[in-house]
Specification:
With 205 residues, the chain is mainly alpha-helical. It has twelve helices and no strands.
Length: 205
């Protein structure tokens, strides 16, 4: 026996049936969203995405502090410690480029300028030149194992701790390091140095 159009319309517009269908759809959407979030987190942690982003943050913070050196810092030891830190946090793809022939040619030109044309070699390029030379001449053990392993992470943490305590001492105390306008920018930069090594140490454990 066929249902009348009125009965069919009544069945499809039943509030109970509609609510059940909506709840079912919302439940499926929630489960799909939860799976997507889990996959994103898994890829971010296991796939190295978060580590790469934090590595860029640490690298940028170290370069930022190196740029501030000429205006705010007066201790050569503090500045020199940024060179190995930048070396250890250098982005892998850029490190690979400079570790090859490109970096060798740039280093060759820099060495020639430094030896024979010192007046054309600015003093502020000395530390970047040392960094580039370190990248070019580093053996595979240092360029690969040390940079990617726990040794490099420990070195980065040690450098960050030393820079922080020296900066607090130079600022006249912990409070001044976080309140003085000229010291606050350095403090933020140094704190950012801890982000990558702490995360890398957690992932290695």
């Amino acid at each position: 026996m066929m249902k009348s159009p009125n009965n069919y319309l009544k069945m499809t517009t039943d509030p109970t049936v509609s609510a059940s269908l909506i709840n079912s759809d919302l439940k499926e959407i929630g489960e799909a969203t939860k799976k997507l979030a889990n996959h994103v987190i898994h890829l971010g942690v296991r796939g190295g995405f978060v580590t790469t982003v934090l590595q860029w943050f640490a690298f940028g913070a170290a370069v930022y502090l190196l740029i501030l050196d000429r205006t705010n810092w007066r201790t050569n030891m503090l500045t020199s410690l940024l060179v190995p830190y930048i070396f250890l946090t250098f982005p892998d793809w850029l490190f690979g480029i400079l570790h090859g022939d490109v970096g060798k040619w740039i280093t060759l030109v820099g060495v020639i300028l430094r030896l024979f044309f010192p007046h054309h070699f600015p003093e502020y390029l000395y530390l970047p030149g040392c960094l580039l030379l370190l990248i070019v001449i580093s053996p595979s053990f240092v360029a690969g194992y040390v940079r990617a392993g726990w040794i490099g992470v420990i070195i980065c943490l040690g450098i960050g701790c030393y820079l922080l305590q020296e900066h607090i001492r130079a600022s006249g105390g912990f409070r001044n390091a976080f309140t003085k306008s000229n010291g606050l920018s350095n403090t933020i930069g140094i704190v950012l140095l801890f982000v990558f090594p702490v995360w890398a140490l957690i992932t290695l454990l």
